[in-house]
Design brief:
Rossmann fold, binds flavin mononucleotide, 16% strand, 5-stranded parallel sheet, 194 residues
Length: 194
């Protein structure tokens, strides 16, 4: 790795008006300001069918999964804005991660997709807890596939009031904590020299 960590940023929601996409875009800007090379990926641009072992056996990795797998492999770390569904992570995140852990035809040319890499997690939700509960299983899932998830995380409640018209965070303290999270991810990625 050079001194400029490559960080891939995405949200766990496909919908256009997603609060977590707004948050992910903020993360992307902050990471860039703090010295990372950033790629923002909108998972809506890469629709992948729900994982089905028969589909995999018959056709292999779907084309969009192959594209995303290559993109993930090319980065040193991830920053994820993850909505919470029923106290857990969204099927979009789970399905994406599941497909990308499967073997693909390009694997010999690829760096590892997850193992040894870093991640920072944040969330926002209209509710008071801001999606905090969903970050717990996501942290567990990522740790289980070898990702170093930084200890800090940020859940922003009251999503409907949390953003200004130009997409910034209305609360300065929250904005500061999000910047700290971005800094922590960059520092950890540099320290691990991925
Ligand atoms: C199936 C489903 C389950 C949800 N469960 C929760 C929940 O457990 N906690 C919560 O704070 N919000 C929950 N919500 C509300 C979401 O936080 C809200 O729809 C949010 O805007 C989704 O994120 P997005 O704006 O990035 O798409 C749920 C929404 C859906 C569709």
């Amino acid at each position: 790795m050079s001194d400029t960590p490559k960080i891939l940023v995405f949200a766990g929601s496909a919908r256009d008006a997603s609060f977590n996409k707004k948050l992910a875009k903020l993360c992307a800007g902050l990471l860039e300001e703090e010295g990372a090379a950033v790629t923002f990926v909108d998972l809506k641009d890469y629709p992948i069918p729900l994982y089905d072992g028969d589909l995999e056996a018959g056709e292999g990795l779907p084309e969009h999964a192959r594209t995303l797998k290559r993109a993930f492999a090319e980065h040193d770390g991830f920053m994820i804005a993850a909505p919470e569904y029923n106290g857990s992570l969204t099927p979009l995140i789970k399905n994406t991660i599941d497909w990308l852990t499967r073997p693909g035809p390009d694997d010999d040319d690829l760096r590892p997709v997850y193992r040894g890499k870093t991640a920072a997690l944040c969330s926002t939700s209209p509710g008071a807890l801001g999606g905090l509960r969903g970050l717990i299983p996501l942290r567990l899932l990522l740790s289980g596939i070898g990702v170093h998830v930084v200890p800090d995380q940020l859940a922003i409640g009251g999503a409907m009031q949390a953003f200004t018209d130009d997409g910034a965070l209305a609360d300065d303290a929250m904005a500061g904590r999000l910047r700290d999270l971005a800094r922590s991810l960059i520092a950890t990625t540099r320290a691990l020299n991925i």
